[in-house]
Amino acid sequence: MSVGPLVVEVLLTFLVAAVVLCRYGNWYRHHLVVTVSVLVAWYFSMLIVFILPLDVSNTIYENCLQDLKEQTIVKPSNAALPDGDGGDGGNYTLMAADLTIEGVDGTNITSLNITTTTTTTTPPAPQVGCLKPWSFVPAGVFPVFWRVVYWTSQFLTW
């Protein structure tokens, strides 16, 4: 989880641009300044294509982190307890009854006490998190990178 994938892609893109220039350009006949400027122009143009997926995965991860930070779950204090029928998002209700009969003399019951205890449990919420991409690059690298690549490409391809 470092800048390793970015460095590998930058170097491989340079190799691809150099091989393409060597194969399709007649770099022996041209002046050195022309050859180097074409190499840099092609290299930066190819960088845009190859580095864009890294930037997209980085942006999705950073947006996910921002969304998690902004999420708040507020449960109103006067909410009714769920009935545990399965349609309440996984809450379970456990009911227990305690029956006490006193004063049984033949067929008459003089007092009857029934105590009911209700316990509601909610399973822990699933851990919602953001999976860090294997190609994660620290914040601030891509904006500088894109400025250099964009403006150099504009200058060299005009």
TrEMBL record:
Keyword terms, alphabetized: Membrane, Transmembrane, Transmembrane helix
Keyword Membrane among UniProt keywords: yes
Localization, UniProt: Membrane
Pfam families in alphabetical order: LMBR1
Keyword Transmembrane helix: yes
GO cellular component: membrane
Top-rank taxon, per record: Eukaryota
TM region(s), chain numbering: 6-25, 32-54
Membrane topology classification: Multi-pass membrane protein
Family per record: Belongs to the LIMR family.
Full protein name: LMBR1 domain-containing protein 2-B
Annotated organism of origin: Portunus trituberculatus (Swimming crab)
